[in-house]
Design goal:
Blueprint: H1 4-12, H2 15-31, H3 38-44, H4 48-75, H5 96-104, H6 114-129, H7 135-152, H8 155-182, H9 188-242, H10 253-369
Length: 391
């Protein structure tokens, strides 16, 4: 819930706020000329004392209006029963807590009603004392508390009813004093209107104060009677809802036996509830352990499958490594053969260059000797046949 909501609710339920707002509106209306009634202006807006009397009267009426609306709304909560029907043989005292939970489930506004508060306090008494023997006495005590609280709620209205006549008498004293101050024996005819005006203020403030007090008194009486009927209805409904609902154990030997039996039954019920909770906890623990074992087994199976796949991959990698080693050996042999071929080719190229150099030298010698190139002896590079070999 928003923390500012209780503060806002308190302001909206304040009679001072609504009374001050009503007087502010009234003051604006007559000061702006909207209200032109001479009677209203004479008795409500002709002297500062009348201003205060009117403001207090509106505050008192606002308090009574808020109280009347509250009482009217409370009557709606006493129209229907709020608790579940009692058991035929009597409801055990231990079920008072369940009835309190039913009341807590009501809406936020419903939990503030007078009947709901009375039932809640009575059930709290039964639950705390674990007995319904003094329930009727508790209900009478709660009824007296509500009556005292209702009487105290009219404190502001009673104060206003008391204060307004005092203000009227104060206005009378002020008016008479003003009249006597303006009275002049030498100029009696000229001062007489001022004296009459002062006396008019004196008696008008008293008349308005008495009228306001009478209106507030009768309005308070009507609202108070209405609230008294509400309290009587709440008393009857609370007694009908709670008296005779719970089991009562008399203060006799038989009652002591019944009390012991009730205690044993309560202990047995508590033991059964504890056993059921413990069994449920064990069941959940076993289910959680089984789920963990299943997860662990699934993890182991996945690890075994991953290891098998890893072994297969390692075998393929080893085979590829052997092939790579063989390929490296073949490349080395090919490199050796290539080197040999390159060496042989290099030797052949050197021989050809040597032959060409010799031919060039021969041509150069022929040119210098002046011989014809065709008559020059030829040098044959072909090998001569060896002896013992066919020509």
């Amino acid at each position: 819930m928003n923390p500012s909501q209780p503060r806002t609710s308190a302001v909206l339920r304040s009679p001072v706020f609504w009374g001050g707002l009503a007087y502010t509106i009234f003051h604006i209306l007559w000061s702006q000329g909207v209200i032109e009634s001479s009677l209203v202006l004479r008795y409500c807006a002709s002297h500062p004392v009348e201003y205060v009397e009117t403001a207090l009267f509106l505050v008192g009426m606002a308090a009574l209006a808020i109280k009347a609306l509250d009482v009217f709304g409370q009557f709606g909560s006493v129209a229907a029963p709020l608790l579940r029907p009692p058991r035929p043989g009597g409801t055990p005292v231990s079920e008072a807590t369940g009835l309190l939970d039913d009341l807590e489930d009501l809406p936020e506004g419903g939990r503030q009603h007078l009947l709901v508060r009375r039932l809640r306090l009575a059930l709290l008494h039964v639950a705390r004392s674990d007995s319904a023997e003094k329930l009727d006495t508790e209900l009478k005590y709660l009824a007296d508390e509500d009556a005292d609280r209702a009487y105290a709620s009219y404190g502001l209205v009673r104060s206003v009813i008391w204060a307004i006549p005092i203000l009227g008498f104060l206005g009378t004293v002020i008016g008479i004093a003003l009249a006597m101050g303006k009275l002049s024996p030498q100029e009696l005819e000229t001062s007489l209107p001022s004296v009459m005006a002062g006396l008019m203020v004196a008696f008008d403030t008293t008349a308005v104060a008495l009228a306001y007090s009478m209106i507030l008194y009768f309005a308070q009486f009507a609202v108070g009677r209405w609230e008294q009927r509400l309290l009587e209805a709440v008393d009857g409904l609370a007694s009908a809802e709670l008296l005779g609902r719970f089991e009562r154990i008399p203060n006799t030997p038989d009652g002591e036996v019944v009390a012991v039996r009730k205690s044993l039954q309560a202990i047995l019920q508590s033991y059964e509830a504890t056993t059921a909770r413990q069994a449920e906890a064990w069941r959940r623990s076993i289910e959680a352990a089984a789920a963990n074992w299943q997860q662990a087994q699934s993890g182991i199976e996945q690890s075994v499958a991953s290891a098998a796949g890893l072994q297969e991959n390692m075998a393929r990698q080893a085979e590829m490594l052997h092939r790579a080693i063989d390929a490296v050996g073949n490349v080395a042999r090919l490199e050796t053969e290539l080197n040999r071929n390159l060496a042989a080719l290099a030797g052949a190229r050197n021989f050809e260059q040597t032959v060409m150099s010799l031919a060039a030298t021969i041509h150069l010698l022929n040119a210098r000797l002046g011989r014809e190139p065709d008559a020059a002896p030829r040098v044959s590079l072909e090998p001569k046949p060896r002896k013992g070999q066919a020509a």
